[in-house]
Amino acid sequence: QQGLIAAYLICRRSDEQVMGVISLKVMKTNEVNLAYWLGEHYWGQGFCSEAGHILLDIAKDLEIRSIIALHLAGNEPSQQVILRLGFQLTGQEVHNHRGQDHTFLAYALT
Predict the structure, then answer these.
(1) Taking all residues of the chain, what is their mean pLDDT, rounded to a whole number?
(2) DSSP per residue over 35-50, as a string?
(3) Which of 36, 42, 49, 66 could bridge 22 with an S-S bond, Cβ 3.0-4.6 Å?
(4) Nearest to 56, CA basis, from 2, 107, 96, 1
């Protein structure tokens, strides 16, 4: 069934500053998708990787056995997060993003 499984704000521990969001969602294809957004000011500090590991632990507790992730081709910081979380590249896909078709790299974690 399509819909949101879990969504969390990514907050800095020291002052609870909201930096981004991370979620798991069941897509139209019935695949579970890990998605995140982090404010550019916070890139490269490990916040997304840390949040990703926590959310993957939650997915394991929910007995979710397979998760996908996508990022825009050329988005190296996002690629590094996905690889650090243990995902494997499965190919390329074209999706509409902000009104235009873009190439995304697709990953799976099983």
Answers:
(1) 94
(2) EEEE-GGGTTSSHHHH
(3) 36
(4) 107
